[in-house]
Amino acid sequence: MTEPRVWSVTQVNRAVRAMLEDTVESLWVSGEVANWTRARSGHCYFSLKDEQAQLRCVMFKAAAASLPADPEEGTTVRALGGLTLYEARGEYQLVVRRLEAEGAEGLWRQAFERLRAKLEVEGLLAPERKRALPRFPEAVGVVTSLVGAALADILTVIRRRAPWTRVIVRGARVQGEGAGEEVAEAIQALGGSGLVEVLIVARGGGSLEDLWAFNEEVVARAIVACPVPVISAVGHEVDVTISDLVADVRAPTPSAGAETAVKDGEGLGEALEISRTRMSGALRAIASRRREVLGLHRSQLRQSGVGLVRPRRELVDRVGDRMEAAMRGLATLKRARLSEVAGKMDVLSPLATLRRGYALPQDAEGRILRTVGAFAEGDHFALRVSDGTVPCEVQGGS
Amino acid sequence: MTDAGRKDAPENAPSLEERLKRLEEIVRSLEAADLDMDAALGLFEEGVEHVRGAEATLRVAELKVEELLGPEEDSNLRPLEEAPE
User: Fold this and answer.
1) Predicted ipTM?
2) What is the extent of the structural domain holding A325?
């Protein structure tokens, strides 16, 4: 009889481990999550179970880092991994490389909903929190990847619509581990720089997982704290992220974000033209009301027959006439190009009137002397002409 | 004697937003109040100045793109080289 071969515990576990690892290929296992714990090391330990059985699982730090959040207890998941044996305990376990719930994006949806609910309770999604965007920003901030198509799209739109704009970009990785922190830091730096009036936070389309940085709490908090309004322009139209929900404006794509940020220059030109037309219309109305008053003065003057002030009266009268004529001409120019209209405007300025040889009498305070009553024998006044003033004295009145 | 009451161009030109806002106020005042002719002309001139200023801004044809650098860099801003498409 030969002595039976005696194995050490270590030898047994090692052999079983080798057997498990060598003979069982990677597999998907479905079950409910139980006793999830994330150790300080970053490794996650849990069990998968069904009605009759349990399976110990471990998800090491590197794999666990790709999870949006820890799954809730009882969540039905499927795990991809390989079987092994933890020799120190003699327990066999599944080393999980990938964990999904309710379809490929279930865990992400779950984490999304959880954060959404949390922010909602804090009132951070409330419509009344939304700030109005500056209507005509001269400086626009962009937080996005420096190498992505999103930036190119945004610049194309701004260049087309409002090329006078100053664009300041803060680059950030928008995908992968640590992207959330980078995006949040960029929002903080650029939003708080005092350099921009509005901020576009952008990323092109991708899977829910690709867009995950924009569903992270750190990014949401940075947007909420940003001192200037934020436009969230992440993904495609169908993708809604937490960033979209907390931002002041959600744009469906980066291009749309840029369109939201800057108005079309064409529309602006029209608005200016309208202002100009309205101003001259109003001035014309005022001028014609003044004309009526002047007419009254004229008849009074005729009755008093004061010779001295006749030139003055005529001056006032003629300035009034010229003004009104110019205004009338202006109204017909509504459809003229802006630059042309701008030239005409000079004609209406009192200074331009002076340049044509008219003069305005003013008292020491600069008030325009417009009636006979304003001139008394011996009074000093100034006659304002195009290049300065001439001191005058009233003499030989009635 | 100077042009009392008329504003010379300030050293810091108003922003487009400020100009347009002021322009709106001016239009409203001119339309709403029965202003003295001097006051009306003053407002009108100021308005025309803002229209011109805004148009000058709108004429700038080249987009300026800069990158905000981190605190460790010497200069905080630098022109951004755009990646060729």
Assistant:
1) 0.73
2) 266-358
